[in-house]
Design brief:
mainly beta, Jelly Rolls, five-stranded mixed beta sheet, five-stranded antiparallel beta sheet, 19 strands
């Protein structure tokens, strides 16, 4: 009789524990992407919010919501686990340097991601908070670089600097986020603003609108960059 009672108590305890785990999984907090602890806002102004997202070594993000039009770029080659809310887990392949745009016009996306053991996911999410041009400029044209995507809010460029062609220059442009995907340090110089910065691999720089800009390979063989120009 005593043995039966102990078994019953153990069975009830297991049921309570299982219920607690299930409840926890279904009540996990859902937050805006800018409030997710592994998605860190590193620059915010009138037009953009730059979010630096890095998840390492088996760690998981919280469920978080993407609902603001955004440009993204992957900075690591990795296969990771992704779960959209109320959907099964899926494998996703991150390709370093791949960039894309998401409008979220038909609704946001709520998901969480898990990095594989001994590896990491690193990406930038540039949320487009407001348009730069209130009225569309009929004279505006893309810069003469390879484009990765174009939309009504943003355009993505891919630029390669080498020892043979170590520098590019432009002026009169809209706000730009420059991200060094691969390679050696690049300097970004805007003399009229008295701003000069250097960016290394997996870092970003903000290029102020209208002012002239020179981007130059500081040293080494090459650098690959992704630029997002806000419309």
């Amino acid at each position: 009789m005593l043995s039966h009672k102990k078994t019953l108590i153990a069975f009830i305890a297991i049921k309570i524990l299982c219920f607690s785990c299930i409840t926890k999984s279904f009540t996990q907090q859902i937050v805006p992407v800018r409030e997710e602890p592994r998605h860190v806002p590193v620059l915010t102004n009138k037009y953009i919010r730059v979010i630096d997202a890095e998840i390492k070594d088996g760690d998981s993000s919280l469920f978080h919501v993407h609902e603001t039009p955004s440009a993204f770029v992957f900075l690591t080659d990795v296969v990771y686990d992704n779960q959209v809310l109320n959907m099964p887990w899926q494998k996703v392949t991150s390709k370093k340097g791949y960039s894309w745009y998401a409008s979220y016009e038909t609704g946001g996306v709520t998901h969480r991601v898990v990095a594989p053991k001994n590896n990491r996911i690193h990406a930038f999410d540039i949320e487009l908070l407001s348009k730069y041009s209130i009225v569309e400029n009929p004279n505006w044209k893309p810069m003469p670089f390879d484009t990765t995507f174009t939309s009504n809010r943003c355009i993505g460029y891919k630029i390669q600097l080498t020892k043979e062609k170590p520098m590019i220059q432009f002026s009169g442009r809209n706000p730009i986020i420059a991200i060094l995907v691969n390679g050696e340090e690049v300097t970004i110089n805007q003399p009229d603003t008295k701003v000069q910065i250097g960016i290394k691999e997996e870092e970003f720089g903000y290029i102020r609108p209208k002012f002239g800009c020179t981007m130059k390979l500081k040293k080494g063989e090459s650098a690959e960059l992704v630029l997002f120009e806000i419309k």
